[in-house]
Amino acid sequence: xxxxxxxxxxxxDEYVEAEIQRLLTEDPAVAEQGITxxxxxxxxxxxxxxxxxxxREEILRRVAARFPDVPVTSDIGVTRAQAPTEVEELx
Length: 91
Hints:
By secondary structure, this protein is an alpha+beta fold.
């Protein structure tokens, strides 16, 4: 039985990867299609960009809450969007 338990502490399988990807895209509170989940030797890495540090933290918090036993690393950057300097006029 010990071998079965130790297998659970190995890298996450493709099902966990798919479940996290589904959470990122389908959860209305997250709804991020620009985040990619990649399996690595010791866990999962989330890649992509979001509009604010707060948004990134919220995504990581939701993933950790839903998958507490899965080691997740963030490589999520923050886009540097600036406010427009002039008013855009539409025809």
